[in-house]
Write a structure and sequence with these properties.
Glucose-1-phosphate thymidylyltransferase, 2 helices, single chain, mainly alpha, about 35 residues, globular
Length: about 35
C-alpha cells in the first residue's frame, strides 16, 4: 500500500546520505513526477 509523508520521511532520512534518499525527500517537497 501507499505510505504517508511521515513514513516516507523516516525512510528517507537514513538514505539522505546518498542520492536515493535525497530523491525521496524531493518527492515530498514537489510531489510525484508524472
Amino acid at each position: 500500500g501507499w505510505i504517508d509523508g511521515a513514513q516516507l520521511t523516516r525512510l528517507a532520512e537514513p538514505l539522505a546520505k546518498n542520492g536515493y534518499g535525497q530523491y525521496l525527500l524531493s518527492l515530498l517537497d514537489h510531489g510525484p513526477v508524472e
